[in-house]
Specification:
The complex is a heterotrimer of chains A (312), B (299) and C (226).
Chain A lengths: L1 E2 L8 H23 L4 E2 L8 E2 L3 H22 L4 E2 L4 H4 L1 H11 L3 E6 L6 H20 L3 E5 L2 H17 L11 E3 L4 H15 L3 E7 L4 H10 L3 E6 L5 H7 L2 E4 L1 H11 L2 H34 L2 H13 L2
Parallel strand pairs in A: 2-3, 5-6, 5-8, 6-7, 8-9, 9-10
Antiparallel strand pairs in A: 1-4
Chain B lengths: L4 H4 L3 H18 L9 H12 L5 E7 L5 H18 L2 E6 L4 H16 L9 E6 L3 H10 L1 H4 L26 E6 L5 H12 L3 E5 L4 H4 L10 E3 H15 L9 H30 L9 H11 L1
Parallel strand pairs in B: 1-2, 1-4, 2-3, 4-5, 5-6
Helix pairs in contact in B: 2-11, 3-10, 4-5, 4-10, 6-8, 10-11
Chain C lengths: L3 H19 L8 H33 L5 H19 L18 H32 L5 H16 L2 H6 L12 H10 L1 H25 L12
Helix pairs in contact in C: 2-3, 5-7, 7-8
Chain lengths: 312, 299, 226
């Protein structure tokens, strides 16, 4: 996907505000890091800065800087290449299929509450999906495990239906609370799948042992299934039972990918830059450790210690 | 040679029936499979074993009844080991349902197998605390802010075992039995890494692969699923032969696990044979995995 | 304004909490715990919304005699009975002052006799679904799928005593090829490498998403616009 500046232009006001915020946030970090008076060991409590977390600060600034740089570049209109994510390319096809079959679409936002980034990512994705569904005039069914998630999902979907010009199609009761208990929730969602036989099932968010129970039930009714989670243990289950799986970081990228908004895509590119930095450090660390053991050189040992300190 | 479609797309109910039989028959016949501890399990055993008698051990039951069949055997083995070694154990949970799991140990196992052990002197139930990973963080920053009384509301100062527990670092080790979040990962991140307390424990077979990256630097040892529990039980029996006649849950339950694993391997082989010999024929109309493969290739 | 105020609050709280991670003194260093407490309090009150939604939907289904309405009766009965017994400690031997899960209490009976077995039953379904998913998914269609399939076979057999028994005949020099050793090797090396790569990707994703939220670039989750 390549986004040219002529297709999307950043909103100048919002960009300026975002940049101002970024500068302010960076200033706070840098000011604290640079002022010697602030440095102190945790136990002495003579200063304000926790020197034990210097590494986290350095890495935080590097990664944040990379992401912000690409946000700024994207906002200035520079075209960015973003690789295709098959699972997200199929979203519209899945919604269209549900409309043709006259069956509902099931969206499961995972088990976590709103204090989990995965759930926020899922809500962002739900917003985009609801806009597509509103356009197709299909029914969206969202059973949730947490009351706060229900409130946020209702607000998000209602807004999507409004922006799609279909406020009348929004049904509040289709987004409802089921149970806080993990397997009571899984049993209820399984029941919904078997009774309503949705044409498409989306499992996007934080999932645990119920992932395969849900995905296999969805598979048994022949639904198109798209899943995504940042819980690595559940990924194999989703890969085995679903048509498409968003692996870890792809879940967080999904909203930006679907929005096609330049600054959002810029943050994705920044994420890739962060990955590049990680790869460089992994290779450098491996090479240094190997060299150190082979040569026993003092300089190599010292450089190796610095890299080790950074990731201690 | 053509394999009929019925084998290529075998009815899942037949598979369910076979699995049901593979679980039930060994449960009835109770075959025993001797296990031996792998290094990742042995290191937990050795750590508990090497601690001086009377050391304070923090045991967190981070699971509910759903995963109890897999994690209860670990809990029993750890409690037996720590009690035999004479350690002082504080039970705790980050799961509201974990209270019920602790009760099973304090009400059923301890009075029967260790009648001489007294509440408040040898073990204590610190109960459930909300706040997930944040609760661990609070305990590390200021233990008494979060926990000032046991599960019954008795002040810690009134219990001989906990009267001088003021900080998390007063515990020699942290053991967690993990079914998900929060669990061992959070104990490592918020307690092990920050306060330097050795963290170890067990997780369900599903959770275990996620915890391997922390071993051995941040995680002393790990029992993965029923197999991990069975290995710990065998280490316990080897060291303390008195347990040879005790009921070892994990060892008993390994029977169904072994038969089920073998059955799944046979099913996978059958599926592949059917796939290869039936490949010249048409693919199944609704074979979603075929479609996912095509999608992967497109990527 | 309805959208701007939450964005400003998000930005300020985000920056303050990140700052608090690096600061040793109060109130910054305790803000995370304080906000966790606030979140827990809000969650408790939010349950009223959830409970209300559950009651409303199922009462509506029962009163309209919608499809499968008897299931709603079961749900309502289960919800109300547990709520009343738990809230008012009905059948608790020590009365209202007693421990919530006291031995012999009705709630303990519900926990041990209903909740425990039902939860364990649902969890145990995994064994059945793992088998059916394995049968369908583990097919040597491509080179990558074949590697995955082989690793799965080694782990499945290596994690049981059968694995040791099957390869016990191997000479000592080939000990690393014994199934339990191979299974441990796969878990300790390829699995760990893959897990770490995914974890690094997730961590970067979390940072990027958090930044988008703190900076107000991502605002879909806030719902309604002005």
């Amino acid at each position: 996907m390549r986004l040219s500046p002529s297709r999307r232009k950043p909103h100048p006001d919002s960009f300026a505000i975002a940049l101002l915020r970024a500068v302010l946030a960076c200033t706070v970090f840098v000011a604290m890091a640079q002022t010697d008076l602030l440095f102190a060991q945790t136990d002495t409590e003579s200063g304000w800065f926790n020197a034990d977390r210097t590494q986290a600060l350095v890495l935080g600034i590097v990664l944040t800087g990379a992401i912000l740089l690409y946000v700024v570049l994207a906002a200035s209109g520079r075209p960015l290449f973003i690789r295709k994510i098959a699972g997200l390319e199929t979203v519209e096809e899945a919604v269209g299929r549900a409309t043709e079959m006259g069956k509902p679409i099931l969206y499961v936002p995972g088990l976590n509450d709103m204090d989990e980034v995965q759930t926020i990512a899922s809500m962002n994705l739900l917003g985009h999906l609801a806009t597509i569904i509103a356009g197709y005039d299909s029914r969206l069914h969202v059973p949730v495990r947490k009351s706060l998630v229900m409130s946020v999902a209702r607000e998000t979907v209602q807004q999507s239906y409004l922006s799609a010009g279909r406020p009348d199609a929004y049904q509040e009761d289709d987004i409802h609370y089921v149970s806080d208990a993990q397997f009571a929730y899984a049993a209820a969602v399984d029941g919904i799948i078997v009774r309503e036989r949705p044409a498409a099932c989306f499992y996007l968010g934080g999932f645990y042992a119920e992932s395969l129970i849900l995905a296999e039930t969805g598979n048994s009714i022949g639904a198109i299934q798209i899943a995504g989670t940042a819980r690595p243990p559940q990924l194999p289950f989703f890969v085995a039972a679903c048509d498409y799986t968003l692996i870890g970081e792809e879940l967080f990228a999904a909203s930006a990918y679907l929005s096609k908004e330049p600054r959002m895509l810029g943050s994705l590119k920044g994420q890739d830059a962060g990955k590049g930095i990680a790869i460089v450090f992994i290779l450098a660390g491996s090479a240094l450790a190997t060299l150190e053991s082979v040569t026993g050189n003092e300089t190599v040992r010292e450089v190796s210690q610095i890299v080790l300190w950074l990731f201690r | 040679m053509r394999i009929p479609d019925s084998i290529l797309h075998i009815d899942r109910r037949i598979i369910f029936l076979l699995i049901g039989a593979a679980v039930c028959i060994p449960l009835i016949l109770q075959p025993r499979f001797q296990d031996s501890p792998t290094p990742i399990v042995q290191s937990i055993f050795d750590t508990v074993e090497r601690l001086p008698s009377g050391s304070r051990v923090f045991l967190s039951f981070d699971y509910g009844p759903d995963t109890a069949p897999e994690l209860d055997p670990m809990a029993k083995a750890l409690v037996r080991h720590t009690m035999t070694r004479g350690h002082e154990v504080s039970f705790f949970t980050l799961f509201p349902e974990g209270l019920g799991q602790i009760k099973k140990i304090t009400d059923n196992l301890l009075p029967v197998e260790f009648p001489e052990k007294a509440y408040g002197r040898d073990f204590v139930n610190l109960g459930y605390k909300a706040g997930l990973g944040g609760a661990i963080n609070t305990m590390v920053v200021n233990f008494r802010t979060l926990i000032n009384a046991d599960a019954e509301g008795t002040p810690l100062d009134d219990l001989p075992m906990t009267a001088d527990v003021d900080e998390m670092v007063d515990y020699a080790i942290i053991l967690s039995l993990t079914a998900g979040d929060p669990g061992l990962k959070e104990w490592i991140q918020f307690a092990g890494d920050i306060a330097g307390i050795p963290v170890m424990g067990g997780g369900t077979a599903v959770v275990a692969p996620e915890l391997y990256p922390y071993y051995p630097q941040q995680l002393v040892g790990l029992m993965g699923g029923l197999k991990g529990a069975s290995e710990y039980e065998s280490a316990l029996v080897d060291r303390y032969p008195a347990y040879r006649n005790a009921t070892m849950d994990a060892t008993m339950r390994m029977g169904p696990q072994v038969v089920t694993h073998v059955l799944i391997v046979l099913l996978i082989l059958l599926g592949n044979l059917a796939y290869f010999f039936g490949r010249s024929g048409r693919p199944g109309r609704n074979d979603r995995t075929d479609r996912a493969d095509q999608a992967d290739r497109r990527r | 304004m309805r959208r701007k105020i939450p964005l400003i609050i998000t930005f300020i709280i985000g920056v303050v909490l990140v700052t608090g991670y690096f600061v040793t003194r109060g109130p910054f260093n305790t803000l995370y715990e304080s906000f966790s407490d606030y979140f827990a309090i809000i969650t408790v009150f939010a349950f009223i919304l959830g409970g209300g939604s559950l009651l409303k939907i199922h009462l509506k289904r029962v009163s309209n005699r919608s499809t499968d309405w008897p299931y709603s009766v079961v749900t309502l009965a289960g919800f109300l009975v547990t709520l009343v017994i738990g809230l008012f400690k009905v059948g608790n031997p020590d009365g209202m002052g007693g421990e919530i899960l006291a031995a012999g209490s009705w709630l303990r009976f519900l926990f041990d006799g209903v909740y425990n077995p039902l939860s364990a039953t649902m969890f145990s379904l995994l064994a059945f679904f793992v088998a059916s998913a394995s049968y369908r998914a583990f097919r040597a269609r491509t080179k990558e799928a074949t590697i995955l399939l082989s690793a799965a076979m080694v782990i499945l057999l290596g994690r049981t005593p059968v694995g040791a028994w099957l390869t016990a005949w191997m000479p000592e020099i080939l000990g690393f090829l014994e199934l339990p050793n191979l299974a441990n090797w796969i878990m300790a090396w390829p699995n760990t490498a893959g897990q770490r790569a995914i974890m690094i990707g997730i961590a970067l994703g979390v940072i990027a998403t958090s930044l988008r939220i703190i900076l107000g670039i991502e605002r879909n989750y806030l719902g309604r616009r002005e």
